[in-house]
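Record type: monomer structure entry
Structure origin: computed from sequence
Chain ID: A
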Amino acid sequence: MNLKVIILLNVLTFLKLIQANHHHDHDKANLKDHHHKKSIEPKFAWHQLLFKDLPSDSDDLEEEFIPYNNVPMGVSKWGDKLIITVPRRKPGIPSTLNYIKLKQHSSKHEDNHNIDVPLIPYPNLDVNKLRLTPTPDTLNLVSIYRTTVDECDRLWMVDTGLLEYTRNRTYVRSPRILVLDLNKNEFIHQFEIADELHTPKSTFASIAVDVTPNHCDQTFAYIPDLSANQVVVYDMKNQKAWKVNHDSFHGEPDGGKFDINGLQFQLPDGIFSIALSPHQEAGLRTAYYHALASTNEYSVSTNVLKNQSKFNDNVFIRLGDKGIKQETNCFVMDQKTGVLFYNQVNINALACWNIKKPFNQKNHVQLFNDNDRYIYPSDITSDGHGNIWVMTNKLPFFIFQGLNSTDINFRIWSFRVSDLISHTNCA
């Protein structure tokens, strides 16, 4: 046989093998994705929220509790408690800070998740009772969006003090930073955010907590103000707070366009959340952040945020653009792996990026997607033990279209970090 023919046949055979292996790998990837989606079930799910210990004999119960208006927003896990927030965006919210006892609702079957489990007001119902004329020394909660658990077993939150009823935003009291001792189930600290640090349109929807290792008293909190496009920084030890402003805290002029399962809307929200890197030399960390109305990601040293003096614009670094329809509200850093997990709210998905790797499309990995059940992930947190927790709540549908109370509308998910990133570019 002609030597050229033999070489050509060998080349063709080699190409067929490559093609076969490519299809095999593609099938394996699809099978992995398919298995991943079908095998993961939410830990909890609700048609509508229910609450324990509401007084059945109250004359005002119908006004104090309007089931349809209760939409859960945040989720944090500590010990046996799964903490769930319900901000007062509508009337009829009996309790803004709540929890579930996990051990009472554990299941050995992944597909047997718990449905319509009543929430327990935390630390009790009286603290959560809405009082329209609170006295200065009372600690009654008004409205909380999201919480953060720190390494000192403390639960941090911002009580916005705001009733965000439709066309009637009303401040019941000034916004406050609150800290709760999770071992004692009691509030141990509060700090009022001064008037000069917020505006009538301010929205404090999340909080990042930066504890100096082995020094719980040396803690800073970074609080994004998504409506006023600024960050409030709080120094716990010195009982001081100040605000930081930068152009990167704003949304993009053409950003914030959403199309979720056919529901189209636009949100102008600026800086939405902050995630902190593992500790570096001298106790410093990198703060990662983004606006909701943008697909760009940024970073800045916490040293800049902690320093009240003026700074150069070049200390705020644009890392890059995540791409079309990659808007993100909340994200969280896994401190052990240095992997940033973020919600892709525009496409009902969860994704990741390992901060040790370049910020490019290749290293941004979609881990989970479900257009039927993972609709609008509103919060994502780490429990510090290798798991992340996600709340999905269909919020845009509640605002713009309405929810069907016979459907499952709210879900809480739990993912094992090691399982999520295994054999991906986030590992």
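Annotation 1: The chain has six helices and 29 strands.
Annotation 2: The two ends are 50 Å apart (CA to CA).
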